[in-house]
Amino acid sequence: MVERKPGGGFACELVLNGDVRADAPAALGRRLAEDGGARVEPVYAARPAPGRRSGGVVEVATLVVTSAGTLVAIIETIRGWLTGASRNAGSGAGTDDGGTGGGTGTADGSAGVTSITVIMGDDKVEIVQPSTAAEERLVEAFIRRHSPS
Fold first, then answer.
1. Residue 100 Cα distances to 36, 59, 92, 134, angstroms
2. What's the pTM?
């Protein structure tokens, strides 16, 4: 499921780390779709049985992204989304989405997310904002390993 696709596209898995709000995976998924992620799907740990209501479908804070674009574009979107999280974390600011975000945290659901792990096959890298020079080198090496020659 997590692999290079014919024609230069790819699929990867994103794991949100930290005190992840319930709306964070969907918010990041929307941002990725807007910024060129061809398809973004949440990964569920459990779904309700047919005919039963969900008392709480257990959603793992994981997304599968299938894209015809580049890995660089996905990582830049993740960095931008995390920058919003770090900018808004602890500010006590409400939403800026016209009040539809529930009144707490950020409009994009990023509050509480401290990092995102990008997984491609058996390889992974953690994106942290703000990142150190060493982390930047790790991300660049990950991109090189997974970019067409």
1. 24, 21, 16, 38
2. 0.72
